[in-house]
């Protein structure tokens, strides 16, 4: 078993780019993860990784070994899933990812009760508003807002998620309330952006169909919750999912603007690699999440 564990560590180290990250993902200290790699290198008498103070890369032999080791781990996981489907007691780890706001408000609350009902299953939830490579990062289930771009992934729609343009009363009192989409060009639009992201735009619904609006602003961030906080503090106009600002609208802390020209709803659903569809524990969590989340929309 220790050899298989070492294989798993090696695969995750290559996929995540560092011994520290690979070990953390498997709940191992950097020292233990490093020793797992050394065990493999000692076993074969070859160097699998080139290590420098700044970078870790596989050697030519290490890259070839990774390709085969990855298939071994996938085959083992699939075999365990088959056994679990017959035993009726799924076991193992389910790796989830979600945008920050979705994960905090919608996904995280589902996990404690699911794990209590399924004591053999552990959940690892990773939250990020940045783009995630589901296959390379070894994700079992990704919750997603928007249009999935990768057709090789299985998409399961949960609901359409309305989006709203919102601003604080103080901001609107100081800068005026936009009356038509073109007015947004005179306002500080709070932007969700990432490194190397394309030119920024919002899409609004009009009588003539979707309108692509080029917008700009003095602030941008890769964290959606920060946008909401900026909007609440009167810094500008934000484009946010309705569920994230519903309480603020109800309390009057935010006001919806251009209600006749709302952004199109974002699709909310979950993505999974096709090869993981038959894994009972992944399917079980997906079923629970879809059932419970549909109640909220």
From TrEMBL:
The keyword Coiled coil does not apply. InterPro entries: LysR-type_TF_proteobact-type, LysR_HTH_N, LysR_subst-bd, WH-like_DNA-bd_sf, WH_DNA-bd_sf. It comes from the Bacteria. One of its GO terms (molecular function) is sequence-specific DNA binding. PROSITE patterns: HTH_LYSR (PS50931). SUPFAM superfamilies: Periplasmic binding protein-like II, Winged helix' DNA-binding domain. Keywords: DNA-binding, Transcription, Transcription regulation. Residues 1-59 form the HTH lysR-type domain. Gene3D superfamilies: 3.40.190.290, Winged helix-like DNA-binding domain superfamily/Winged helix DNA-binding domain. The keyword Transcription applies. GO terms for biological process: DNA-templated transcription. Pfam families: HTH_1, LysR_substrate. Belongs to the LysR transcriptional regulatory family. This is LysR family transcriptional regulator.
């Amino acid at each position: 078993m220790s050899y298989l564990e070492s294989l798993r560590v090696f695969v995750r180290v290559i996929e995540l780019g560092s011994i520290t990250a690979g070990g953390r993902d498997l709940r191992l200290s950097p020292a233990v993860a490093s020793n797992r790699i050394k065990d493999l290198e000692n076993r074969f008498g070859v160097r699998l990784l080139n290590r420098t103070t700044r970078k870790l890369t596989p050697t030519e032999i290490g890259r070839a070994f990774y390709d085969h080791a990855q298939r071994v781990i996938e085959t083992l996981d699939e075999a365990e899933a088959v056994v679990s489907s017959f035993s009726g007691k799924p076991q193992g780890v389910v790796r989830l990812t979600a945008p920050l706001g979705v994960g905090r408000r919608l996904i995280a609350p589902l996990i404690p009760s699911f794990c209590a009902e399924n004591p053999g299953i552990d959940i690892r939830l990773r939250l990020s508003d940045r783009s995630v490579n589901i296959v390379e990062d070894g994700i079992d289930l990704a919750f997603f807002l928007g249009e999935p771009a990768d057709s090789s992934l299985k998409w399961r729609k949960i609901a359409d998620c309305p989006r709203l343009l919102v601003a604080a009363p103080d901001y609107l009192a100081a800068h005026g309330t936009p009356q038509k989409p073109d007015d947004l060009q005179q306002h500080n639009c709070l932007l969700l952006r990432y490194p190397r992201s394309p030119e920024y735009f919002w899409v609004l619904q009009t009588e003539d169909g979707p309108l692509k609006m080029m917008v700009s602003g003095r602030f941008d961030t890769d964290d959606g919750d920060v946008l909401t906080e900026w909007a609440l503090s009167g810094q500008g106009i934000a484009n946010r999912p309705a569920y994230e600002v519903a309480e603020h609208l109800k309390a009057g802390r935010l006001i919806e603007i251009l209600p006749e020209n709302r952004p199109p709803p974002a699709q909310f659903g979950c993505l999974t690699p096709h090869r993981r569809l038959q894994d009972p524990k992944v399917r079980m969590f997906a079923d629970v999440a879809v059932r419970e989340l549909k109640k909220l929309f």
